Amino acid sequence: MPCSPREIGSLFLFEKLTAEQLGRLCAEGRVERFEPGPVYAEGDPATCFYVMLEGTVVLSRRVGADDVEVSRTSQRGVYAGAMQAYLGDRVRQVYNNSMRVTEPTRFFVVPADTFASVMREWFPMAVHLLEGLFFGSKNTQRAIGQRERLLALGSLSAGLTHELNNPAAAAVRATATLRERVGKMRHKLRVISAGTYDRETLADLIEIQERTAERVAKAPVLSPLEASDREDALADWLDDHGIPDGWRIAPTFVQAGLDLDWLDQVAAAVDEATLPSAVGWLSYTVETELLMDEIADSTNRISHLVDAAKQYSQLDRAPFQVADVHELLDSTLLMLSGKFGRRIKVVKEYDRTLPRIPAYPAELNQVWTNLIDNAVSAMNGAGTDGGRGTLTVRTARENDRLLVEFGDTGTGIPPEVRDRVFDPFFTTKPVGEGTGLGLDISWRIVVDKHHGTLRFESEPGDTRFQVLLPLTAPAPDDTPEEPA
Predict the structure, then answer these.
(1) What is the pLDDT of residues 57-97, one digit of tens each?
(2) d(Cα 148, Cα 161) in Å, to the nearest integer?
(3) What is the DSSP string of 263-301?
(4) Which of 37, 281, 455, 463 falls between 20 and 30 A from 68, CA-CA?
(5) Which residues of 318-350 are buried (b: 16+ CB within 10 A; e: fewer)?
(6) How far apart are CA 62 and CA 194, in angstroms?
(7) In terms of pTM, does the model score above 0.85?
(8) CA 268 centroid distance within chain
(9) Angstrom distance (rounded) from CA 384 to CA 411
(10) Strand partners, 391
(11) DSSP secondary structure string, 137-190?
């Protein structure tokens, strides 16, 4: 359609241009009429800058599998499209939204290259200012995000240190006690060997010792009442057979899974005079086995925590990969377990039939961390039952997406602030306890990077944040980010 310098000069965007400048725009641009329907799609290469002359335009953004309308207007002169063309190849030039028209609509269309060149030629100072604002905003956003990650890392490090310290201290204590018990066992063995035992009796004792070690490894788990009854029975037996400190030895024997039949076998293998020494020697055998089990459990716990830290950080993994969300959730819950204490109960409701999904695991772990940390804070806040509560982590399939839900029994989100929870720097936490960026960062990771959805429902005693992730996704865009 013909381009009129007078018509485009009447638009507020171009009203200060000279006749020569308007003539150049008309010569290099064009007027185009669109029937109702799409004009361009989000993510496509940004080739044109559009200024509406007449009609109605609708802009939308993709959120998960849905297109969410963000603007609808009939105002003459509104513009969209390749608005960052002046930045050139320093940023990836794609449309940041989708545009469609709802009635026959005319646009003045300028090619992106033309728009970039006239901006640099006619408004060089403005271009410098816009570049500074654009990259400055990106750098600020990146620095703030990095600070948020560092704060989370500091909190996690403190929790991980606490979690590692417990099994490490237990292993140290068990090792010191084991050294003492082995020394006493050597002493008992010397006493036994100096006695009047014949070779057959010693062989029987050694066989009992070996079977004792096997029973320790297979000790049953008893209820408190069962354990108490067995301790009383063993203590009575030891007292009846002249064994000193039977009340002290009996709990150890019960913990090892030993019973009256086992004591009868020991009594049958030796005479009455040497029975106390034999029982004492076997008692040290039991204690050493239990201590070695404690050391093994502690070191396994440390290994498990280290594996969880690696899984959480994804330091040895590719940034984008096919991942099991349950592994990610478990590693995050373990890393944050120090925050729960005994007052917060964690309930897992996993659908293990869900498939692995393509994702950025390290960044999803950051989302889990932010949502769990908020839930814990809500349950520790004023108005709760002394900091008690239940955190429920649920996974399920919702149509063609995977749902991860975090539910808490905290005070809930007040209705008057629900529209602001995803705003940067907005927080309901006390001063110094929150940056107000956790949900903003989570939103960008879920929505912008994974094309998913982050939503919530809240009432007192029942708040649920839900993350919906696509089950399939295209290969990640490897285009470098804009320079810092």
Answers:
(1) 998 887 655 677 778 889 898 888 887 777 777 777 888 88
(2) 20
(3) HHHHHHHS-TTTHHHHHHHHHHHHHHHHHHHHHHHHHHH
(4) 463
(5) eebeebebbebbbbbbbbbbbbbeeebeeeeee
(6) 86
(7) no
(8) 59
(9) 6
(10) 346, 408
(11) HHHHHHHHHHHHHHHHHHHHHHHHHHHHHHHHHHHHHHHHHHHHHHHHHHHHHH
